Amino acid sequence: MPESNTFYIQLARYIVGLSWIYHGFFPKLYHIAPLEKLMTGSAGFSAQVSDLITRSAGVGEIIFGVCLLVFYKNKHIVILNVLALVGLLLAVVVMQPPLLIEAFNPVTTNLPLIGLSVIWLKEINQHL
Asked: What is the pTM of this model?
């Protein structure tokens, strides 16, 4: 394993940033996943409004993922990433708790990304 902190920052940068881009594009823009419809539908929105919210969220996630890739040395955007991941996890806890025990659920995606982001922050603080 490389000893350079730069390697770990880059690894975290690409895993976290590309995760946001992937989750913004495929289940929200390319094809609205049933679970996405369930989440917005459980907030009481009509099908049309749910689709609009979901697609808008997808665009926002892609933009945020690109920002993480570009501004990866900025600890504030990494902190915002952690807060967003915690917020999204809490939204599922409140709106659709049964999803927490499904395969590939927010616990198994958000918690590892949060942990990686904490390591990323530590590396930013040591390296920069």
From this structure: 0.93
